[in-house]
Amino acid sequence: MIRSKLTILLAERHLSITRASEETGISRTTLTSLCTNNAKGLQFDTLNTLCRYLNVGPGDLFVFVPFDISVGPCYKGGDDISFTVVDERGKSKIYTLPFSVDVEYESFPLDDDGDHINLPESASVLVGSISACGDEPTEEEKTFFSYYNRLPVFIRSYLEDEITEKIFNDIVDDMDPRAGGLDDTVFEALNFHVDFIMVTELANK
User: Fold this and answer.
1) Whole-prediction pTM value?
2) What pLDDT was estimated at residue 201?
3) What is the mean pLDDT of each run of 10 residues along the chain (205 residues)?
4) At what angle do helices 17-24 and 44-54 cross, to 10 degrees?
5) How far apart are CA 138 and CA 126, in angstroms?
6) Which of 30, 43, 145, 151 is nearest to 98 (CA)?
């Protein structure tokens, strides 16, 4: 798995994507896809320009981890979440872990008649068992977290953001259809966030 560190490198230099685009001639679309790790490829000329602009080498711009992890369905999928891991030998395995989501809602006025609607404000997410609650970690959980714990922190954040987006999209799909008549600023005001807990200590048990 190869991931770009462009977001981190730009932040360290207090640079925006817009400014970097203007000063390098690289399109905003290309820079954004690198920052979000959605790029499918990168030309050597572009890589050379970025490295010269940031004064780094290719090894500073990218991180390689000798396995892949991808996120499967969650939230609507029930009490489990699945991850697909492709190991160093190219062997693929799906790991299924306990998964729970507790959503907090905030009441917003729907109209001048006093009707209100509940909109999602935050969620608490737990992935993995908690031995303090009497749940013993399975061998499957231990194996998965042995991979997860080897990921750099910023790659873990990308995985958690992906899960968060899936959860939020599922929550929105299940919302009261009357919410469709609300102004977009209402949803922006929610500042939906997730308290994310991966029970990584399982790998050490």
Assistant:
1) 0.71
2) 47
3) 94 95 95 91 94 95 94 68 91 86 75 72 71 63 87 87 75 64 51 58 43
4) 110
5) 16
6) 145
Domain boundaries, the chain: 2-64, 68-204
Q: Which residues pair with 83 in a beta bridge?
A: 71, 95
Tokens of 116: 């209100």
- Report the half-sphere exposure of 197 (CA within 13 A, side-chain side): 15
End-to-end CA distance of the chain: 26
What is the DSSP annotation of 173-197? HTS-GGGGGS-HHHHHHH--EEEEE
Could you give the CA distance from residue 164 to residue 80 in angstroms, rounded to a whole number? 15
- Integer Cα distance of 65 and 117 in angstroms: 45
What 8-state DSSP symbol labels residue 75?
Answer: S
Q: What is the pLDDT of residue 132?
A: 41
Report which DSSP code applies to 90: S
In a 13 Å sphere around the CA of 24, the CA atoms on its Cβ side amount to: 24
Q: What angle do CA 154, 165, 132 make, to 5 degrees?
A: 70
Specify the length of the chain in residues. 205
> Which class does domain 2-64 fall in?
mainly alpha
